[in-house]
Amino acid sequence: MRIILVDDEVELVSTLAERLTLRGINTDWASSPADALDMVQRQRYDIAVIDMKMPKVNGRELMRTMQVHCPWLQFIFMSGHGATAALQDEFRGIGKKLTYLVKPVDIDVLIDTINGLISD
Amino acid sequence: MARKLKILPEFWRSEMGPERLTDSSFDFRRIWKRAILLMLCVALVPLMALAYFDYRISRQHLENEILLRTDRIVSNTKRNVSFFLEERKAALQFIVQDNSFAELDNDQRLNSILQRLSKTIGGFIDLGLFDSTGRQVRYIGPYDLKDRYYGEELWFQAVLNVGSYISDVYLGFREEPHMVIAVRKDMADGTFFILRATLNTATFNDQLVYAKESAFGDSFLINHQGVLQTPSLFYGEVLDVFPTGELKRLALSFPLVTKENQPLDTTDWHGRDIIMGYSYIPYTSFILLVVGNKDELMRSWYSARMKIIAFLLGSSLLILLVIPWVATSLVNDIYHADLDRTVAMREAAVAVREAANAGKLASIGRLAAGVAHEINNPLAIINEKAGLLGDLLSQQAEDDGQTVKMLGLIDSIQRAVERCASITHRLLDFARPGEKRNQAVDLQAIITEVLEFFQKEAEHRDIDLQVQIPDDLPPLSSDRNKLQQVFLNLISNAFAALADGDRLRITVTREGQGQVQIVVSDNGHGISEDNLQRIFEPFYTTKSGKGGTGLGLFITHGLVNELHGKIWVESTVGRGTDFYLSLPLQG
User: Do B384 and A12 touch (CB under 8 A)?
Assistant: First the structure.
């Protein structure tokens, strides 16, 4: 199992990746959607954890593009944008089971979510 | 005092207490006073003036009338008296022209002449024939005066000089008032004789009765010495002397020099108001006096004056009653209108303030959400860095005290981050774009549900929970979750304000136009005026240090706005707080 984290905050995304790695999860990170796309095409990932709001491309657009290249990929979204209900609204109609976490993310909750997706 | 207050109009009372009901700049008492004064002036002054002028003019008119009437009576009576005397003098002159001395010097002839005179023009008592020495040679009449000598008598001398004479009334030989007319006849031989007649004073007096009988007053004759020549009603009998002092006082100096027929308005020595006219009777020493009794003559005017005064008093009284009444009710109307205006203006001011408040709160909400979002990322970084630090320390797995302490510190950091996050999340919740899911909501069920959260605490603290909801309340079309949060916030606030043993009451009533009003009322410690002003502002809390974020009511306010409702609060320190919630049935 390999995970990719995408967030424009390098400090956040690198730290989070390191922590997941320390917990035995293979984790890479990208600080821009372009880097992330590049990476998913060169390496197989199972789960992408994506920040909802990034410069130029938002998380949703990034997900669509990634799905074109890696249809097997599952997604977890992080947002600094408040409540989960709002996020659910935003993703209504995509028709795929999606998970949303609100920043700051509790690492244990994140790992639980990842495990949940893998076991499905 | 309390009794007196009752009859005062409302506007008067309004300014008596320290709490004025209106903040208007009107001084109602002054308006009232001015209105009354002005209206009274406008109504009473012309009335008074009219009455006064009518009084003056009618009096003047009547006085002129009386003067004219006096004048007329003087003139008529004078003509009567003159004519009476002239007629008789002319008759005597005719007799002496028509008869020679020889013819008259005959008792039979003289007697027949007297008979004829009495039958025709009348008023004669006797006839006497005198020769040029003054001896009465013939006398026909009731007295025995034949052969008496009259040569020294005043009348005789006068006839000698003038040719004819009308005497004053005098006593003479007869010791009885009488008057005579004498005419002289000059004969061809240079001698003369005189025919004299005594006049009946009663017939003479009859010439003067008009003024007396017409109730005008008195009329009589006096001679130049002021001796009464005819009887008067008030000023003495025949031959009484008119007091000379009085003559002077009446400006009747003799001989009279004032213009004739100019009646005087004066008083007599009896103290009565009189109008006095007078006139000389020509060829005699008679002066005619006509005295009008002014009181009597003015009687009709006095009664008219009484009517005017009564009318004036009556209408003045009416004006005095009506004008204050009208002014009072008008000013009262103005006062009420002003009161309504004031209330309307206050309500408008409140509405404007509320609208401004809502707008302010909304922009604060957006700002807060923006800030919260920006803070979330650094918070997340702190969280991850601290977490990593903790991970690394745990990996070392050396159980020295230092490591344990550092892990504790990291835990503190992460708990502080959690606290921050809970704030930012609530702010972000609040600023969420206005999505709202309408569903049929049973208000009773929601309130009961929410209260269940507090059931334990209420029992523990002995707080009396009262809920009054009408049974026929229809379900609301609203957002269930938001309503829940609103009630959760309000009830939780109330609980914070309540002391043990207090009560919390929730009352739901239907208002007109499809509204429901909910009052969450506690009898806790209340909210001060200052705090009440800012109660819906974010981060405004009196529970600082006790876990309050100052966001509860801010968010509640936002939620109620989203539900198209209104929320406001009334509170008295020490007596409790009422939160009013007005929600549309169809949100």
Answer: yes
